[in-house]
Amino acid sequence: MPRFSGKKPYHQEFFDRQVGEMRSLLHVLEMREGLDEAENRPRMDMYESADEIVLEFDLPGFNPENISLRASGANLVLEANKPREQIDGAYICLERHFGYFSCVVQIPGSVDPRSISAEYRLGVLRVICTKTGDLQVPIKEIRD
Predict the structure, then answer these.
(1) Residues 78, 79, 84, CA angle at the centre, nearest 5°?
(2) What is the pLDDT of residues 77-99, one digit of tens each?
(3) What pLDDT sits at residue 2?
(4) In what order do the strands lie in the sheet with 67-72?
(5) Which residues does 99 contact at the CB level (< 8 Å), separation at least 6?
(6) pLDDT score recorded for residue 34
(7) DSSP 40
(8) Phi, psi of 14 (to 5 degrees)
């Protein structure tokens, strides 16, 4: 009669490790489904030259028709949607972003909203805001 050593057989250890990895993957996938829009926000760089302010957003894999950009006062509003790709099979790992997001960026300095231009190339949305210099706004004093 074989003696019980108190140690799990090798195949049981292997099975337990595989089940643990599957549970971990399922947990990650469940967390990905519940991403907040702010967490789905693209990476952005903003820099300034003497004549313009440039914003660059990483938007790899987006269709240009699914990207909306508008100026609202001193704010730039970017909205985009990237539908989830349909695959035959099941995901093992899911790290790329998909879905809808909206972000608002305040543009520093004096920028003419009519001069804002944008281009989407190689997965990067580049927004160029031309500076106008100091805007002089007349203030009228009202007295009773």
Answers:
(1) 140
(2) 899 988 887 888 887 787 777 78
(3) 57
(4) 67-72, 75-82, 99-106
(5) 35, 37, 40, 81, 82, 84
(6) 46
(7) G
(8) -60, -45
